[in-house]
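FORM 12-B: Structure-to-Sequence Request
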């Protein structure tokens, strides 16, 4: 199964888009939206408020935005996971003066109660329904782009890609954008290399306060959470295979080992493979791991990481899941062809019965398991990532005219500002360099 979501799982998902227009709290304001059920808003509002309590950095930025209105009149189209944390980012941008529209960046990552609350309680247009099919997913991106954005916020670069291929008439209005995830950064850098990227984009993923914490601690914990919610299996004693030892892979491996699993790493980068070995993990090829693994998690950002030749070696009862952005890391189309039958055994668990009697289990249709079966990252870690988003949007509005049409990291001073604010919120004080130390570090003349 590729990104178009074909297969039995997809056929069970919502196939028809229902258009809705909701009258917000102000009876004179119409909020366009496409959400599952506005009656879910009460629950969503409580959850949004709960998350905000654990986002002190974003709270601080929101106060600054309310006072300074740095985004006044700026139209923002955001294609992000519609979660409680994202909701608080949208409210922060709105309170900074922006006109925001939000759509989902993954068909299974939307929290429907949150989407409902954003529309009803915060008058923010949202186009997202958990389980939406491929057609509806892209129609929602189109609805977000109908806003004629000045700034794009993306998670995976689907919105940017659609803008550059199908809505090119909107490009003159766009001054800049941000990108949240590794997969999106890879795509955007390829666009920039090919000379087709038409405006500057800040790679939030490349901020140290994003990949060192969000990717490692957020993905690590939430991936394990998704696996356990979907399967209720005991990880202790299992052979737990992690494909990819980037920051996300490091985090997943760390948490799996902490729960007693025997962790195996597969890699294509010799430096990362060596690092994993030095960190105490077993390192081998996927072909070798396929024969002994009990649970497999892909976090590479590439396609067909677990493919037909690996399915042929898997043990009966092997569990496969993905925590990379797109559902292409496991070759589900090849697995479907090998299967004699398929059935849903638990929510977010699909059984593929092979002709030789083995049964293979795929979680969350091969999509982001931490958002398909769980709630994604904890708010306290998304606090830093979304603080970077908010400050980067402000930076882009102020500096877009002097920036190249490329994808580049968050400015280091903003990155350090977020880290400093996070430490302050935790009551932690650190040292500062003295003038003498600064002079020493910037000089070449003083030696032994």
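FORM 12-B RESPONSE
SEQUENCE OUT:
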């Amino acid at each position: 199964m590729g990104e178009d979501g074909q297969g039995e799982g997809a056929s069970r998902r919502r196939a028809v888009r229902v258009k809705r227009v909701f009258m917000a709290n102000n009876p004179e304001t119409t909020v366009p939206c496409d959400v599952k059920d506005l009656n879910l808003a009460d629950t969503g509002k409580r959850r949004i408020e709960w998350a905000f309590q654990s986002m002190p950095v974003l709270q601080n930025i929101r106060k600054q935005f309310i006072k300074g209105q740095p985004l006044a009149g700026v139209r923002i189209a955001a294609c992000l996971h519609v979660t409680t944390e994202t909701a608080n980012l949208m409210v922060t941008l709105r309170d900074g003066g922006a006109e925001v529209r939000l759509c989902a960046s993954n068909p299974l990552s939307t929290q429907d109660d949150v989407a409902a609350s954003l529309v009803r309680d915060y008058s923010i247009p949202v186009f997202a329904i958990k389980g939406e099919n491929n057609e509806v997913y892209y129609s929602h991106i189109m609805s977000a782009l109908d806003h004629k954005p000045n700034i794009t916020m993306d998670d995976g670069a689907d919105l940017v890609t659609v803008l550059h291929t199908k809505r090119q008439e909107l490009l003159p209005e766009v001054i800049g954008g941000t990108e949240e995830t590794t997969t999106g950064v890879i795509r955007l850098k390829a666009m920039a290399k090919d000379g087709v990227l038409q405006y500057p984009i800040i790679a939030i993923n490349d901020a140290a306060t994003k990949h060192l914490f969000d990717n490692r601690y957020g993905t690590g914990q939430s991936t394990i959470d998704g696996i356990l919610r979907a399967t209720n299996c005991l990880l202790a004693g299992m052979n737990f295979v992690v494909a990819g030892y980037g920051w996300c892979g490091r985090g997943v491996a760390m948490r799996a080992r902490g729960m007693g699993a025997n962790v195996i790493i597969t890699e294509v980068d010799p430096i990362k493979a060596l690092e994993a070995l030095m960190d105490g993990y077993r390192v081998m090829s996927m072909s070798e791991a396929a024969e002994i693994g009990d649970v497999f998690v892909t976090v590479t950002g590439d396609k067909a990481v677990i493919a037909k030749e690996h399915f042929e070696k898997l043990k009966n009862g092997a569990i496969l899941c993905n925590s990379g952005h797109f559902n292409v890391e496991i070759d589900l189309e090849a697995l479907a062809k090998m299967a004699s039958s398929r059935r849903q055994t638990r929510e977010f668990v699909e059984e593929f019965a092979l002709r030789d009697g083995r049964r293979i289990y795929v979680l969350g249709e091969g999509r982001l398991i931490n958002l398909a079966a769980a709630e994604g990252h904890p708010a306290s870690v998304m606090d830093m990532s979304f603080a970077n988003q908010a400050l980067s949007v402000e930076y882009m509005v102020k500096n877009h005219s002097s920036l190249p049409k490329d994808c580049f990291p968050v400015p280091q001073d903003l990155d350090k500002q977020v880290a400093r604010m996070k430490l302050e919120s935790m009551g932690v004080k650190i040292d500062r360099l003295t003038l003498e130390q600064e002079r020493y570090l910037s000089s070449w003349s003083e030696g032994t």
